[in-house]
Structure formats: structure tokens, C-alpha cells
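B., you asked whether I could sanity-check this one before it goes into the benchmark set. Here's the sequence:
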Amino acid sequence: MDAPYRPAALDQGQQGLIGKPVDRYEGPLKVTGTAQYAVEGAPAGTLYAQIVGATIGAGRVVAVDARAAEAMPGVVAVITDHADFVSGGGNTQDPMPGWTREIDHFGQAVGLVVADTLETARAAALAVAVTYEAREGRYDPREQPVIEDHGIGFLPNIVKGDVDAAIEAAAIRFDQTYTTPPHYPAALEPHATTAWWEGDTLVLRASLQVLGGAKATVAKTLGIDPAKVRILAPYVGGGFGGKTGVGPETIMAAVAARDLGRPVKIALPRRQTAFLVHHRGDTVQRVRIGCDLEGRITAFAHDNITSQKDNKGFLEPVPFGTLPLYAAEHRSFTTALTRVDLPPSGAVRAPGEAVGTFAVECAMDELAELVGIDPIELRHRNEPEVDPTSGKPFSTRLMVRCYDEGAERFGWNRRDPTPGSVRDGEWLVGMGMAAALRGNFTVNSEARVTLTPEGRAVIETDMTDIGTGTYTILAQVAGEMLGLPVSSIDVRLGDTDYPASAGSGGSFGAGSSGSAVALACENILAELARRMNAAPEELVLKDACVSVGDRATPIAELVRDRPIVALGKTGPGKESRHTSQASHGAQFAEVAVNAVTGEVRVRRLIGVFDVGRVLNEKTARNQMVGGMVWGIGYALSEDAVVDTRTGQFVNPDFGEYHVAVNADVPAVECHFIEEVDDSANPVGAKAVGELGISGAGAAVANAIYNACGARVRDFPVTLDKLLPGLPPV
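And here's what the prediction gave me:
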């Protein structure tokens, strides 16, 4: 897009689909168990494989004894040295690291067992005896040298003005450090692949988010023509960033299937996922703010440290969401690095904002108390008119309306600002709030739409639906523009034989793929108009009929034996470079803290959000509520604990890595303030999927402080950190 644009037919459509809470297109398939995921629907004769993981964190493999495993009935192959295997953990869209006997993190792949049953493969993998020569590892990020000039990550350090001098001259100065631990992208469906070869063409049925990038990675890694790789992912059971690239299980399944001449499937067990899939890196965040006596900020610094293993280029963009958030002339946003011998860190839901808002929004809460004003009023006084870092105008920004509507819906005026002043029996009750922000992106995306002789529309794109509602919103966009009910639309996703899409990730999927479908439908409308001897703007389409004035013709009659096929393409352009684009929101939480035990219960969580055009109220709310629930988990329990003696995660499963569950979650409210953003993309929709997690945890943490007066800056807020700060009973 080089200028603001929206298809007129999307606004003038008569079908009444856009924005409505249409039921999920694929819902019946999922609830009846007939939607096939990565390890389902495998060809006959498929073998099962299990990766053998290293049991040291750093060193090298000296010897492998596979005799016991090979002797087990049902074992087809034990592969411990293969030129085409990959050893590196974590997902990547780059060519993957080759096979090596050097170990740089616990759980690194050191072999593969293939058998005729899953149980045999797992038992045989345990029987493979590996001898190691260990070396001293770097397992504690806080003990490693800090590298300021590292040259990795997509977000460069940004410094404007003289922050130190401005803070020193400020009437009120704030300086605190906050920490967050590693987090897992714990999707429900395992990271899994079924691989088989059809002649010299590799077919992969895999749990992946971005198929175009995965296809390129697989081809480069195996040294084959990308045209000889086909990836199928019609249904994906969650991703949260962990499936944006290709993991070792995909390559190893492909190689084993080729060498053995039979299909092979691998599904990573939950405990192995922690080591072979990337995680969100830990962070140390220092927030410094200088402001006047009225709370107007003159200097804002958000300087961070996070970790990554050697030879990986991703760096958690911790201050990304802070860049456009608050006005201040003097600004510093930096991220330093420590190198560790741990599984790689990578993009997990809302990279940057999910953890960055913890520090910044808790800091704003603390600053409001220092200044002596309400936290919402502090934000009002520091709301920027243009992006305070880039100087670009905002495409749309309804942040203040989110604050005010959220406060009214929540009953913020009933909040007592004095911590520990509201009691309910032995419970101390408090309220907290936080801003939410997620950057908006448009990514190159294509879709093919065919209007058939039966009057049906067929949508084809390699876009994935990872539980977000892609099938449904694409059907709604096409139905609105072509005047068709959803029942007359066939949506075909998750196949690299279809036109290349943005894929699912970065909250750009709906806006990018939806726009590609909308633009394809515009081309179809032009052809329908030609066949009706009319201009496109004269057409009225509803209930599978095309009308011009007093003439009405069923779409099927217009098409007959001449199907209309159109390709829609969209991508970033001048408009995205000339404007600052983001989704915004405000999160409000009420919690109760037990005065005796320190137990925390979230009683209410309400969010009000500005996400541009809402394509489907139900699926958008589902995404937001899921993110808000995750924020509760980040605030209170999620913590991937590293044994700094061995480099091993000690809680790599849902038994000990505590995500928020039903008992932890109250009724969560999500409300939208809708304003179509025609600078964002042709359908006017901004980021949804990752906005909900932004600020939710900080709102809970701020509510805890308001409830009991204990300010915890080392997240999550667990009992051991909270109890020492509780007031006397």
C-alpha cells in the first residue's frame, strides 16, 4: 500500500457478514475429531520416530552405543550420525545447523530411533547409551558478560537527546529494575511432522505457522529444489510463535523417510519440546523516568538485557512496545545481550511487548504514586500527538478512549489509591491498570478466489489457521464482497501448492491474508460488472444475486461455464513507512490477596481495545481473552526454571510449568472501540492476536500492590516473593 485504501464493496456490502460473530467455519470438524492435524491421516505403513536428546548442557559426544536399542523388536533403524541431519534446537527460517557432536545445550538432538510403534520408538531411544565429554557451561544469564554492541535482532538501540542529564534535572526521578524469566510457547498440539516422498518430491504434513518460510528452509537445508517440497498444514493446534520456523523434527523425519523408503512421523513429547523448540528469553529491564511535579515526562529510558545462545540472530525486542507509548523529549531504548549454553530463545506471542509492558506499566504505576496523581491521569498527561520516537503521525490511535471507556466499565472511580485499605474478610482487595500496545505490520500475501459455475466462491492460499479463526474471517470477507452466504464459500488453507501468504505470526495474518482475498474479490467484481454491462460501483450483491438498478441476475447465471478466477496481492508500501501503526488498549484488573497466606486470586479482568476493523467479533474476542488469560499466567506463575548447574529446564511440562487454568481465571471481559484503519491494510484491520497479552500481567501486578502494598518487581509474583511484603495480620 502506497496510500490509504479500502475496497468500497467491503464497506457497502449488503450481506451483513463483516464484524458479525459468525461461528467458526471449521468448528464442526474440530469438535467431531475429523479435522486432521500433523500426525493424523498418515499414509499406510508410516513409521514412528523419537529424537534422542543430549543429557549434558555443554561438551561433546564421545561415543554412542545403540546395540541394545537396535536389538529391540520393532526397531527399524537407529541413526546417530547422518550428514543430512540437523542438531540445533529451536525453530528457524534460516538454513539449519548441520549435524555435529559438539553439544551446546541440554536436550540437543544426538540421534534418532525409528520403529513400527510409538511405544517402541520411545523405549528404544531411552536404550541408546551416549558417552559425553562435558565442559563448563554458561547456564546462568545473570552471571555472563553483558555485550552492548552485538549487532543482532531487528530492533536497533534508539537514543534521542540526553537522557541522563534530563533525568538529573527532573523534579521527580524514578529508577527501578524489573526481571522476567524464560517462557515456553506451550501450544496444545505437539510440534510434529509426518514426512513421505512421492518420487523426488518431499511431502510434509507439519504443525507450522508460516509455510512459505518453512518450505524455503527445508529446501535449503536438504539441498533440494523448493519446487520439490510440498507442505500441508490445514489445521494447526496453536503456535504462539514456537512454530513460525522449522524444527529439527521436520528435517529428521524427512531424511529418515527418504532413507528408509517409508513415511515417518515425529511428535515431540512435552518435556522434549522445552529443549528442541525456542523459548522467550529472560529479561532484566531498567526503567528510568524523569518528570516535572505535574507528572509530565521529560525523559524516558527503557534499557534491557536478554540472553541468546551462540550463532543465533534473534534478540527479544524488549522495548519495542515502549517506543510510541509515552511522550518524552529525551529517550533511550536499548537491549544488551548475554550469551548462554541454553536452548535458543525466539519469538513467543507478542515478542517485546509481552514482557516489556511488565516493567514499563508497573513503572508508570509507581511513578503515579510518586507524583501523587491517578495512574490514568498520568497517562493522559503523557499521551503523544505523534509517535514520540519516529515523529511519524499515527494511522489511528484511540488509546485515551480505551483508558476512559475501560475506567467507566470497570468502575475505576471506586479504587482507593491507598494500598491495603480495602478488605473482604481475610482478603485484601486492590485494583490495577495498564496500557496495552502491539505494533501492526502488513506482510506480502496472495490469495486466489474462484467463482464457480455453481455460484460458489473458492478461496485458496497457503495461509494457516492456528486456532485464530482464519477460515472464518476469509469466508466473511469474500462473502461480504461477493454477496454470498458463508455456506456458499469453500476455504482451502495450509498447502504450499496454493498462493503464498503471510502465514500466522506477528498478528499480521488476518490483515494481510484478508486483504489479499478482498483484492481478489475486487477483480471478480470488475468482471461481474462487465458481464452486467455496468460499472463496479453500480453493483449490489446479496444472497448470491447481482443487481443493477431494477435488473437482478443470480451469480451462477452470470458465471455459467465461464468461471472467474482472480489473484489478490498485498504487502507493505509507502503508507506503512510514513505512519506509525499499532493496536492499543487498556487493561483493568481486580485481585484479592489473602492476608494470611499471600494467595492471589484475580477477581475481574476487563480490557478495552482499538484494533481497527473487527472482522469477526467472536474470533477477535476469543483471541483477546486468550491473551489476557496468558497475562494472568505470566503475572502469577509461568517461570521456566533453569538448573544453573546443568543447563537443564527443571519444569519442562505442564505438571510444573504452571499456565493459568480455569480455577485461576475469572470471567474476562473484552470490548472493542472500532475505527477502520485504512492505512494499515485494505481491510482496515490491525493486530489482534498478540495485543491481549500486552499489559494484562502488569495490570494484575499493579492490582496486587494496591491490594496489599507489596511491590514485586521480579516476575512472576509468587508466594515466596509476596509474603515478606504483606502487612501484619
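One thing to flag: The longest strand covers residues 297-309. Otherwise nothing jumped out at me.
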